Write the structure tokens for this entry.
Amino acid sequence: MTDISTEKVHDPGHRCAMAFRREGGHLWVGTWFEPGAHLPEHFHPTLEEHWEVVAGEARVKVDGTWRTLTAADGMVVVRRGVRHELRNESGAQAHLRTFVSPAGRLDEFLTETARAAREGLYNARNLPTSVRGAGWLSRLALEFRDETVMCSPPPAVQRVLLPLGARLGRAA
């Protein structure tokens, strides 16, 4: 793989920075996790991810099982629909790269969530910080639900709450 874009998108809520490069119908994502970084549990109904540690180490939970990854571990495949979560508990920066197939709109989703984190619309636990934040989070989750689904609250609860939150946010 050639270099990913040098332009990074900073997400202070999840304590990471990301850069993207499209390659045909696929996407490469470079992610730099600060110590304490955390991407909460989620799944992708239509995307498959291949995670690889470039430098440092990261903890990854795939389908309920945690493990520590280093560069020596090679690629970890996260199939469509499989719940996963990432953390940096090492105390040092970790650099990972991900191959996403198909690319979908994951770069748009991650760029938008980073922007909203910088604006303080939600916190590190993915909870809205205001009525405006609740509306934004609901609209985002509805717009991208075909590609990225957070696991908390449970997806069945989200199907009821998200349309209400989106309406509430528009009214505010």
